[in-house]
Structures are given as structure tokens and as C-alpha cells.
Structure to design on (36 residues):
């Protein structure tokens, strides 16, 4: 946790968003594979 703008928090948000996006994409591709 670093400063008002939050250097660490900003990085944490990017990382969290990336991981959430990866998980969502994996879920979608798993569902698509299950349908075919």
C-alpha cells in the first residue's frame, strides 16, 4: 500500500482484473467445448 493513488493497489487492481479475465475466458471456452 503506497500513497494516495496507491502504487501497489493500482498494480493489484491490474493483476486482479487480469486473473478475473483469464478465469472468465477459460470458463467460456470450457462451456463452448462442452456444447460441441
Amino acid at each position: 500500500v503506497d500513497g494516495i493513488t496507491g502504487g501497489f493497489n493500482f498494480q493489484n487492481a491490474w493483476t486482479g482484473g487480469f486473473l478475473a479475465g483469464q478465469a472468465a475466458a477459460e470458463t467460456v471456452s470450457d462451456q463452448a467445448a462442452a456444447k460441441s
